[in-house]
Write a structure and sequence with these properties.
By secondary structure, this protein is an alpha+beta fold. Helix content is 48%, strand content 11%. It has 29 helices and 18 strands. The N terminus is likely disordered.
Length: 837
Amino acid sequence: RQLYFVPLHVVVSFGAMRDADAARRADATSLRSSSKRAVEATLEKREKRRRRDDDKAQLAEGNATTTARARVNDDAETRRTIPGRSAASIAAQLGVALPFARGDGSTAATDDDVGACGVDAKTNAESSEEEWDDVDDERDYGAYVPDVEPEERVGLEDAPENAGRASGGGDASTTKKKKKSRRLSDDERRNLLETHHTHVMCLVARGRLVRAAASSEILRALVTSCAPRRLVDACTTATATVEVSALARLVDWFADATAPPIAIDGDDVLGAKKAVKDARWRRLAFRAAMHRASAGATGSACGIAARLASLWALRGRTEISEEECAALFAALCQGLGLMCRVVSSLEPVPVRASAAKLESMGVLHTPKPLPLETVRRREGLVRHWCEVLCARHDAESNDKGNARWVSVVPTTRASVDAPEIIFGNRKRGTTADATSSMPYVVAFYADSGARDVTRKYSAAFSQALHHRTPDWKWWEKITEHVERIHRDAIARDASPELRKVVETADATELFEMDVRSSKERVPGTMTEIKNHPLWVVERFLSRSQCIHPRHPVKGLIAGEPVFPRSCVKELKSAERWKSECRRRVIDTLMNSPVRKIHSRASQARVKALTRAREGWFMTQAEGSKEHLDSEEWRVSMSEHDDCPDDPQRIPGDIALYGEWQTEPWTPPAAVGGLVPKNDRGNVDLYGNALPPPGTVHVNLPRIAKTAKSMSIDYAPALVGFEYKAGGKTLPVFNGIVVCEEFKDDLLSKHEEAEETRRLAIEAKVYKEACLHWRLLLGAIWTRAALREEFQDGEVFQDPTARRIAAARAMHESDNHPTAPVAVEPLELGAAAYVEEL
């Protein structure tokens, strides 16, 4: 309506504007369609690129960040190659100015100069001065895209799964829940400890076997014959010791002789073949000699010796292991008349390891089979070496002084008395594993003896004991046994001079190990010192232990003194000192025990009195918690006559004494064929006690019955006690104690009695078997007779009868193969049936 009042020039102007607007709208429509096509082309290329990247990711895991950056660069390159996508071209096409044009009115800015929203883009030099956060957003903010209809809109972002892979790829690993480590069950821990013990004993047996193989006479002669004359003269002595300087020259020569071959390009192959051909007859002759030497031998030590000899014949041309080099060097030293022992760092199944580690090693069984862990031995760790008995020779008297065991690594030059080479690059401190801690280091002698030298080589003995078995008494029994073998062999075979030198070296080594252990760090907390192998506080001792002497004090923890564990002494009763250790308490110190403890019966009385006393206090308190918690109220109420006695005031009924309060005691010997007995009529052999002088302990089944039938004096051997529920204690007897003069007659009589008993048992079993067969055949007879009588003329068909008939027919067919045999049911009466059976 208002248009009617508009002047003509305004109407003309409005018509022109409408025409221009229609033309502009047509241009915008064409621009919208071209932009839509460009967007679709871009999305299609992005989809192809995404598929290609997914295929590459399936073949090999790539870096997600690198892939995203490459994708952004490709998009930018695509934007520059597609016409009509830049903001400047679109503005020129529409005939409008950019929102943030330059101040001089220039609109010819390029994409490199104009950033998002039209602002001036910074150069690389300017952008490098600032730190930018990477944003995983691939949308095109530098391109102008006109509005489209809602149904025609196309999303420019990637699919959600792709965006998640691009933006959250780094967080996927952090969002995963950590797998909980499985804990070992009680049965698995028990089996693991038994496996650890078995493995340790096998390794000890292996070390003794290798050392025995190194003592082979042929092997010693073979290795010694190859040593230079000057070294033989320098190392040969009359007292089985050598100087360190001469030993160093011997080790250098041996390391060069057993060095592995080095492959060099252009070697003379023909020359090598000729050398092998020239030495072939020597190897064949030696193998024949070794075969003759080991023909009548038992065991596998001869086989190991033959293997070592063959390796020595091939030295320089083949690689020799560390253990074999140590055995060959021991054979060389023994051939030169020197005392040498092979030292090995045993690496058994770890007793302290996670379930996953044990499963990967194959120690624990798993529901699904897992690949066994590949054993990777770390470089720089020496596991087998030698120790040679060295001493300083005086030029005047030619006597030995300062005899000691010197370590030698036969595979390394200049390794004499260098423990740092043995330790190598093992870890130190609390992070050390079982291999680095060296929990078991054993030195093997030529006489099948051995000695535990762990304290000599481990960096921290307390850390080594952490990886040992918790049953330390088990390892002590093994070490005591092998050490006793060595001591007996030295006392039996060695000369007095050599025996003195070896005892001096062993005492020096023991002193060095004690000094090395005493220099370890003293723990600073109660948690560390509990069950510590070197240090102890008094609160962690048992009731049968005490500190004596109470010096030296190495430190304080929470005000409590720290003592060396060597100050811990065992306490025993007077009876146990006599029976187990053959020591008696001094008469003047009988009334001065170190401690008094309660027996099991006394402990039961103390517990009952404690319960009665607490019940009386609760009755008097009438439910008042303040009175029960008040110590003053308890003290005042304890003065009443009806209050039960304080159990803390009841003294123990077993007096304990220390070894310093005893003296050696010799039990009475057997006289006139009578065994000395205690008040209860038996002989105490509890623990490691020995029988009285002139008697012997015979531990055989039913031996007491035989001794009683021979009318000789004997006494049951008390070997321990068995503790039942409720505090009941029962004695355990095992064998008897008789006089030595009756031992042979008793054993022969017992053997005859056992043979008679065996024959009687066999006769009894035969008689019972005949009775059982009689019952069985009688039952069969009865069944057959009943069937024959009550079947009314029917053919008797019994499974057993059919089998008998079939067997008979088969037998006849074997005798007459051409004649056809017809198997018919066999009719038997009761008598004939049983007779056939």
